[in-house]
Amino acid sequence: MLAPLAERLRPKNLDEYIGQTHLVGPGGILRRMIDSGNVSSFILWGPPGVGKTTIARIIANTTKSQFYTLSAVTAGVKDVRDVIERCRADARSMFSQGRPILFIDEIHRFSKSQQDSLLGAVEQGIVTLIGATTENPSFEVIRPLLSRAQVYTLKPLEAPELQTLLDRAISGDEILATRDVKVEGTDALFRFSGGDARKLLNILDLLDQSTQAGQPLVISDEVVTRSLQQNPAAYDKQGDMHYDIISAFIKSVRGSDPDAAVYWLARMIDGGEDPEFIARRLVILSAEDIGLANPNAMLLANATYDIIKKIGMPEGRIPLAECTVYLATSAKSNSAYLAIDAALAKVRETGNLPVPLHIRNAPTSLMKEMGYGADYKYAHDYPGHFVRQQFLPDRLDGTRFWNPADNPAEARLADLQRSRWGR
Question: Contact, 241 vs 268, CB < 8 A?
C-alpha cells in the first residue's frame, strides 16, 4: 500500500529539512547538537506539521546512541518504566556509544505521575529526553521536568518555505513527478495549509486522488477551494481544525463579538475539546487583549480555570460561556502586552545594563562602602508614598515602555502617572 505523500516526503536529514532555520539553520542550536552527536534533553513546542517528529527521526537516523520512542497517546506508566529500564541497561553496557535517547510524542498528554516517572531518569543522566507537544509546556509539563529540558519553539512555515515544499513534492515525489502538474495559483493552497507542511501535502494528495489518470493535475485557487469544500474536515481536537477553531474563538473575543465567540466555544465543546485548554486560552485572552482596561477579567478567567478543574464537563460549559461573554463584551487593551514586548526588545538590544547604585541591595558592609543603596529614597517616607528618583539604568533613563490605551481605567492610571512624573 502506497504511503501518504507527507510520509513519502518526510526529510531524512537536515539538508532535506524545510523551515525552522532559527533552530536547524547554520549555527542553529539543534543543528549543532545533531552534527556533534551531543544531544541534551529538550522539548519541541509548535503547531502540527512544522517538523517536530521529523527532527526526532533525523536524530534517530544520525545519532550513535540507542533511540527509543513512546507515544503519550498509548503509553502508560508501566511502558515508561520499562523503556527507562532498557535505557539503564544500555547505559551500563560496555558497547554503549552514548546516553540513550527517549522521544515522547505528544508529551502534553502524559499525566503528572507519568511525567514524574521520567524525572529521575532524566535527572540522573540515564536517558536524554526529547519531547514534542502542540500545547504550551508551561501548562502541560511539570516544572521539575521543564527545568531539566530546554524548550524550543517551532514556527508555522512561511509562504517561501511552503513554495519550496510544493516544488519538491512536484519534482521529487515518485508519484507526482510522473504527473502533468499545472500550478495556476497557490494563494488558496497556502492559506488552507496555515503554515502546516503536512496539511499542504495532504491537500496535494487529495487533489491527486481526485484527478483522473491521464488528466492534468491542476493546482489553482478555484480547484483547491472547491476540493476542500467538497471534503470538509470534522472538528479534530488534536489536528488542524483545532487550530482553526481556537483562532476563530480568540479573534471573536478580541473583536468584542459575544455571539460569534459563544458559537466557536460551542463548536469546541461539541467536538470534545479539552475544557482546560479552552479555560487557559481565556486566561491568556484576559491578560493579552483586555488587560488594564478591566483587571477583573483576569480574576474571572482564572476563577473559570479553577472551576473547570473542579467540576469538569458537562457543567463546565456554563462558566466557560459566562467567562467568554464577559471577556467579549469587556473593554479591550493590549498596553501591558505591548509594554513587556517593548521592554524585552530593549533588553535584547542593550544587554545587561548595570543597576543604578542607589537601588541595589546592600546586605554587607563592603557593599555599603561601595555605594550600594546610597541615597535611596524610601517611598513611604514621603507624602502620598511617592518621591521622584531614577529606577532605570542610566542609558535608559526616561524611556517609556508602557503607553496607556484609550479606555477609562487606563486614563485614570495615566493621569496619576502624569501627576507623579510629569509625563
Answer: no
In contact, 196 and 160? CB cutoff 8 Å? no
Task: Match 471534503 to its residue by C-alpha cell.
Answer: 231
- Residues 6+ positions from 331 with CB-CB distance below 8 Å: 290, 293, 294, 407, 408, 409
CA angle 109-112-115, nearest 5°?
A: 75
Q: By the 8 A CB rule, do 150 and 41 touch?
A: yes
* Residue 181, SS3 per DSSP: strand
pLDDT band with cut points at 50, 70 and 90 for residue 235 = very low
Cα angle 368-373-375, degrees, rounded to a multiple of 5: 110
Contact indicator for 287, 254 with CB cutoff of 8 Å: no
Residue 21 pairs in a beta bridge with: none
Residue 128 · residue 102 · CB < 8 Å: yes
What pTM value is reported for the model? 0.59
Task: Name beta bridge partners: 128.
Answer: 101
- pLDDT tens track for 54-79: 999 898 888 877 888 888 877 777 88
Instruction: For the chain, give the mean pLDDT.
Output: 86
